[in-house]
User: What shape does this take?
Amino acid sequence: MGRVSRVPRRQSSPRLAALLAILVCAGSIALVGCGAPSDKQAATNSAPVKGGTLKLVGQPVTLDPATCGDVDSAMVDHCLYETLYGYAAGPFGKGTKLEPGLAAEMPSVSADGKVYRITLRTNSRFAPPVDRPVTATDVRYSFERMLHEPLAVYTFFYASILGADEYMSGEADHVEGFRVVDERTIELRLKEPDPTLVHAFALAPTGVVPREWVEKWGRKFGQHPLGSGPFMLEKWSQSSKATLKRNPKYWKAEEVWLDGVEFLPYSSSMTDMMKLQRGQLDLCWASQADYVKLRSDPKWWQYYEEELQVSQNYLVINTQMEPFDDVRVRQALNWAIDRDRNAKMHGCPPSYQILPKGMPGYIDGAKYYGYDPGQAKLLLAAAGYPEGFKTTLSVSAESDSANQVAQAVQDDLRQVGVDAAIERRPGMSYFTELATPKTIALGVSGWWMDFPDPYDWVKPLFSKSAAVENGTNYSFWWDAQVEEMLDDAQATLDEEERIAKFSDIQEVISDNAPIVPLYQLLAGALRSPAVGGFYIHPLYGFDPEHYWSQESRD
Assistant: This one.
């Protein structure tokens, strides 16, 4: 769940909803304080009240859920559409709890884990002018439409469903394992158990849409979205604000407090904060520099909040390119980089594991590698590079934060004889090039969880199926042992045993060193006094369905 100096938190990649702000894009997300986030919480003690419109920063690329591939689009889609399942309102902890969405309850699952039966609630309706009940046929249509969409980014999460691969390849008219039993009941039949399937049906691309409205607008549906969520679109053009209003047909419309929400394009972090303090914005992300200023501002400090995110910024090592096809060279880079110094520079806790803190499978206190230039030199010499070598380190030209990371990495590598020239590539093409085989030797990237399960980390970043052109495995590293371990973990129905297997998987990945984990992010945000009920959601970012305007009581 990722954007550049004018876009926040995760990078606005057209392919990844979870792709991080490369790195937090300089000024979009706050990276504040090494270690645990502050205990201070701004007071929002007033009771919820109806009315008012809040203005937030957010710049979606498309509002067609099937092609949702960036965090801002997912944030707005969460306002417009419903998925079968979702996550509870609230910050980390509460906000990572799965709950029914369009589904009336959590699914019933067969003893062997291969059959899911899902019952839909009876009171969900599409927004006007469609204004009709949402049915199981709509859910299947929306799901199959997403699987056929060339720009869909999450199709690999549904490969366990019987017939999904055949449908995507054009060999079948429908997904065999996705059955409409009746207009309120769905049955999913799987090839093998898949403990993450319910999480996968909480992802934004599975938002349910009405077929007749999609067919009316065709490829322009993303500019004229319509779902059954808490809000409906009033007006939007990609270069300006997106204006939403409360959906009167939403099944919980009485619990949606705001009349509307406006998502405004990003400026610089400093400019956004100035707009907020002048009353032109109600919510914005805050940078490290903003954090420092706010600490000494008693008026605004009370309106600042932060949360540790289940995320990671890391150095990508392309294992297809020499000399990084040698595991000893990759291990050397892991020993050469001073992660503590790099993380401190960004005000974040360092990362020493493949899995970030907060992700099941993370091992408290475990450290894979550390800062040891001497060990790095020994490994380079053993690999045939006693004097080091020259290479290129690529970054997005539009991300100040990524460039700072690159400079620190460049300094560390120089100490062990590796001369890494920094190459700044245009932000719009950077991630396309990262996902192109044998193109970028070293790069700076990041990942933000799509859902709180380690499968969401290992599958997209370290599997064979993701190590393809336009995939998400930018190191292009995969290992037959990890593939077998991943299959075994996914077939394990005992959750404690399954998570322990993912801890073992991350050890094997660490030994092979396809990346250098650098640091975990802290998200900081500033709100205006008008915002009630505010929290930073671990998956949705801003979550206006549950906020209210305190000014509306005046």
